[in-house]
Amino acid sequence: MANREPKSLPISVRVFPALVDAEEANHSRRSGQCPEGMLVFHTEARIDATQKLTFGSYRLIVAARCLEKGLFYEDGLPKDDRQALENYVATHRADTVEEGVQQLRLVTRRQFVEELYKNVYKARCLLVGFDLPYLLSQLAFDFSPARGRFTGGFSLGLWSYTDNRGRERADPYRPRIRIKYIDRNRALIGFAARNSPDEVDLIPEDSPTGEPKPGYRFRGHFLNLRTLAFALTDKGYSLETACEAFRVEHGKQLPVRHSVVAEEYIDYNRREVLATSALAFKLLEEFARHPIALQATQAYSPASIGKGYLRAMGIEPILERQPSFPKRYLGYAQSAFFGGRTSVHIRKVVCPVVYTDFLSMYPTVNSLMHLWRFVTAREIRVAEHCREEIEKFLRGLTTDKLFDPKTWKHMTGFVQVVPDGDILPTRSKYSMASNDWQVAINHLYAGKDDALWFSIPDVVVSVLRTGRIPKIIDAFRIEPCGTLPGLTPTKLRGTVEIDPRSQDFFKVIIEERLRLPSHADLSDIEGKRLEKALKVLASATSYGIYAEMNRQEADDVVKVMCHGIDAEPFLCRVAHPDVPGEYCFPPLASLITGAARLMLALLEHCISELGGTDVMEDTDSMAIAATEHGGMVWCPGGPFEMKDGHGAVKALSWAQVEGISKGFAPLSPYHPKLRSILKIERDNFDPITGSQRQLYCLAISAKRYALFLRDEDGNPVLLREGINNHEDRCSEHGLGHLRNPLDLESEDRDWIPEAWIRPAPALS
Q1: Angle at CA 182, nearest 5°, toward 309 and 358?
Q2: Helices (H) and strands (E) in the chain, counts
Q3: What is the pLDDT of residue 667?
Q4: What whole-number distance in Å separates Cα of residue 682 and Cα of residue 675?
Q5: CA atoms of 479 and 502, how far apart (whole Å)
């Protein structure tokens, strides 16, 4: 067979962007408590393509007391439907007689949005809903593309008037509401400016004098409960599942027949508002446990809460306290940034496995590399041109040294490499059928003038796998100097004390999580919530905030100065530039993900040393081909042969996998060191007997896999994550954005496990 030339592929390299002739990125945040008053509402819509409003209900709550309840309906609602609402109000007076509460009201949509204007805009109350962008769209009479910081979103007109020709027109003396989706769980929402605002509308909420400020614009207090629940737990919910998770008494009731305005349907809608109100109090109560100066309406993700804790401890963003940090090195580090390692080694073949997972991967590598000292440093300096020092470090590396925690703190640097068959991460278009840029770890070759920057952990992976040191052209390290003045102790969720001056934030969080089972003073519910809060906080502050880039939907093309692999930056014009997030610092982001890839590579090395292989890996977990006693298992194309001549791979024994797990114990930065950082997940064990059982894995491609058991007849049974969580161990990747095909009104994801289990329909 003739030798083939290596395939040449273009690669994509990240840059660190700096806007030219532009204001600094807006990192505004509201401090203080949310307003005591809240207007809570929910709408119902037609089930046809228009999804037009039919009716809705609302509650006006002040200081936890419901002062008003009501129903509202679309102005052009058919007479029979309107009559049904009027009859309902007439026959339900008794159930609205509460202290301080008026009788149940019935108003038109126009009348309701006037109430909304009076309470939410003029009185600055909270506007509360579960899926607030959708609910607001139901109230709008028109929409248009949004501008400014909401470019890429839409602008809703709720208020209108009828001109002298009988046409409905937008009221310029009322604000529009602008909405821009970030993702399914999050959206930016705010009032736009209006003509001739009253002086009181120009008083900033944080004004020390109470005087109007020309040009000030009140953005509103919009509390989307879907977003707040996500920020507190890092998990998406429907109203029903959120009520279950936060133990809401008046939870969502079972749906009824939609589109027919009748008593049962109206009861259902009012119950939705009651559940939304109760959920709002539960979520705000949980949020208040975090002693941070952040308003709940601005908590868009766990990272928002994590940043709040850093500010509470007196930790300013690195580039804010050190604006002169050389952008050239930010560019080098940004070009070396890649996400988590994820791949499949055995595709579309069912294989027996042991499922393993690293204990809090990102906090763990943070602690191993002592990165908290950079977060709290008075200054971070760059040690330039240290190629010889790093080459000496790489020459002295052995597998044993990588299991010594002291080795990891010497990896806080970057090297410029001319790749020549080295195994390094790249971002390229690997499929002719796709236009996507994807990350892979390959043997990489380049011309002598094509040098690239990589983190030291990524270069260590190449040394581990090839046995040789790449051709290094240049290198630099980052070094922490001094400690920030004014660091302040705080309590995580009001319970766990931490002093940033003397304690590693990441380490404290994980150690507290490990100690939770021994806290006899915590109820089961409180223990679970604290455990979840600590897990979310650890993940948010140990990686994401340092990599955050926010896409700007600019109205015009803007100039961006790009700092990347070259010593000199270059200028380009971009329509939708990225702006670094508040705590963005590329050197930390690149080192953290590089170290996580090294940890997986070290596990892969241990497996291959025993002749084994893994089926798939995903950021911090790996499914290792393994059976109770080990041996050959069927796998077409495998490097070994079964007795019948079919291809096979070698499965490790359960004991061998346990031995590998114990081998990672020395790398644990946590006290006491009673467990390994490589966990053999509880999924591998029967929840009743505790004995180990055989798992199986089917992997289709990266992030698309399912773990399952087999019943007595050999049929697959999807694995559940824990006894009480009822979360299937099957990937939603590639499916999670789709609606439930069995019930388009339902937000549950139960159909996805069915898609994995059900056989594909026969082709006709």
Answers
A1: 55
A2: 21, 38
A3: 96
A4: 14
A5: 18
d(C-alpha 19, C-alpha 280), whole Å: 39
| Closest by CA position to 663, among listed 336, 406, 307, 404 | 404
| Count of domains observed in the chain | 2
Decide: 37 and 61 in contact? Cβ < 8 Å. Answer: yes
- Whether 410 is covered by a domain: the verdict is no
User: What whole-number distance in Å separates Cα of residue 349 and Cα of residue 700?
Assistant: 8
64 burial class (0-12, 13-18, 19+ CB within 10 angstroms)?
Answer: exposed
Q: What is the CATH number of the domain that holds 144?
A: 3.30.420.10
Residue by residue, DSSP assigns 379-414 as EEEEE---HHHHHHHHHT--HHHHTSHHHHTT--EE
Q: What is the bridge-based pairing of β-strands 640-641 and 221-224?
A: unpaired
Q: Which residue would you say has higher pLDDT here, 673 or 68?
A: 68
Q: Is the peptide bond before 672 cis (omega within 30 degrees of 0)?
A: yes
Strand, coil or helix: 72: strand
For residue 339, give every residue at least 6 positions away whose Cβ sits within 8 Å of its Cβ, in sequence order, or none. Answer: 439, 593
Domain that holds residue 645: 587-757
DSSP 8-state assignment for residue 675: S
The predicted pLDDT at position 694 comes to: 97
Residue 626 lies in a domain: yes
Kindly report the length of the chain. Answer: 764
Identify the pLDDT of residue 89. 93
CA geometry: angle 381, 386, 389, nearest 5 deg: 120
Q: Which residue would you say has higher pLDDT here, 714 or 353?
A: 353
d(CA 211, CA 186): 33
In the structure, what pLDDT confidence band is assigned to residue 438 with cuts at 50, 70 and 90?
confident
Q: Could you tell me if residue 734 is inside a domain?
A: yes
pLDDT band at 762 (very low <50, low <70, confident <90, very high): very low
The token pair at 350 is: 């069912």
Among 333, 738, 332, which Cα is nearest to 568's?
Answer: 332
Listed residues 273, 289, 305: the one ending a domain: 289
With contact defined as beta carbons under 8 Å apart, do 640 and 625 qualify?
A: no
**Between β-strands 126-129 and 37-45, what pairing exists: parallel, antiparallel or unpaired?**
parallel
C-alpha distances in Å from residue 426, one per residue of 180, 446, 599, 703? 32, 12, 18, 18
Q: Is residue 182 part of a domain?
A: yes
CA of residue 293 relative to chain centroid, distance: 21
Task: Give the pLDDT confidence of 570-625 residue by residue, as tens digits.
Answer: 998 887 788 899 999 999 999 999 999 999 999 999 999 999 999 999 999 999 99
CA dihedral 481, 486, 489, 492 (to 10 degrees): -80
Q: Are the C-beta atoms of residues 585 and 315 closer than 8 Å to each other?
A: no
Boundary residue ending a domain (289, 314, 333): 289
